[in-house]
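Encode chain A's predicted structure.
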Amino acid sequence: MPESQANPTGSDEPSKVPFGKWDSFSWEEFPEWEGTKAIIFRSLDGRCVAGAFRESATATMTYPCDEFSYVTAGWIKAHVHGGETFTLKVGDCVYFTKGQMVDFECSEDYANVSVFFGTEPITLV
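Encoded structure for chain A:
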């Protein structure tokens, strides 16, 4: 059995179930966030994407979709406009909804596993 298997095409074949340790997938450059990404799953219609991400950028973004994220390394500080400022560390998780504006600052070793959900195809990752 392979160490990990991604399903970037959204196949529903039983042999295409994605699995593996978060950092064992195929990684590619992710320059928008000064890091790398590994897409674990992308639905056939593109409205759901799961992946692992290593990021080091400081940025502000308005969410074009919902995101659930689980921190696997380092830390990230988030300031939700009109809401709280908090720091997430290894083992912490967060759910942002479409339309929220968030300022981010993260450690050089920050990594996460995230799932993005939208009503349109996800183009963020």
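The longest strand covers residues 35-42.
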